[in-house]
Amino acid sequence: MVRPRRNSVEGNEAVWKKALDLLKRPTSLGLAGAAGIVVGVVGLGGFNTAMEATNSLEFCTYCHEMRDNVYQEYKKTIHYSNPAGVRAICSDCHVPKDWTHKIVRKVQASQEVWGKLTGYISTPEKFEEHRLELAKHEWDRMKASDSRECRNCHAFEAMDFAHQKKKEASDQMQKAWKEGGTCIDCHKGIAHKLPDMTTGWKSISAALIEASKTATWAPGDKPTSLATKGLWLEKPSSETAAVDGRLLAPTPVEVLAKDGGFLKVKIAGWQQEGAERILYALQGKRIFVAALGAGALDKVEHGATVTDPDTAQKWTEASLTAWISASLLTKATADVESLGSEMFNASCGLCHAAPQTGHYLANQWIGNLNAMKRFVALDDEQFRFLQKWVQLHAQDTGGHP
Fold this sequence. Notes:
Number of helices: 16
Order of helices and strands: HHHHHHHHHHHHEEEEEEEHEEEHHH
Number of strands: 10
Structural class: alpha+beta
């Protein structure tokens, strides 16, 4: 006698019924729970072991990009070898200790695999090319976390300032503590060679200058000067002709006409009574726009005069129509802004936290910057550019306190 075949659905239902019956038994439930715990513990332990392995110095220096560059620099620092015999390895500074931030950092670091595959920093030359970019990413991360990894070992509260070797360093450390500073503000380059901080703003400057060579201008355009330029009351035969004044950078002008390689422009500003040879950007602010020769003074057109309530000095709106060369001008005001910002951070944020430009008044910035001029790698032209940019972002000109 042939038995009728069971419907497959009925067969599956029978299997599930038996399984559920088994699970309803207390012993089976206990065994399943214990097995789940064992699997979870083993899995978590394996995951944690693997993750901790990626924190080892051997893992960090396995690839030649790290081994041949930053590792060699690190071995010459106090974090690698010191009288106390305490060594901070890569993960101590670059990987958070707490679980949540550690996982986030590991996920972020996984993106570096793509850089490895594409050879982004595969040679010493490529590494140097990108050193500033890489350093900025890490500095920004540490700044955002209040130098969390540094504070695993160092704490303001534990410092004996009276026994620190240099009083200047002790004073600066206490000042930073009081003002809410963080380690990375002042201690860039503590374990690795500092990048050339000028490469950022120099690359922006070079791009602006290159673009200016093919820029075209028409009446109504309002370009900004990139460098100090001669100005003439009449169109000159060449740029070597004797000038009637100087236009300082960065200064916006309005194009009135174009003739060959020269532009007829309108330069606007303010004149202070008793110092008419200088055009200033704003009333009451010593932000230079142009220096005028004696012959140009008679050509200045004047507007309203106001008396500064703080100094009782008289200031008059002024404008001058003059000719300038069509070179070294740009419409890219956002890039000019980036240039000034990069130059400021590179020059004023290396040895200490760069102050907010809005911390001082425009006129105060002149003395502050001059006091630090000997410490920065800027020529006179670059320094004037930086000073004007900072002044235009000061407390009384729209800066941030």
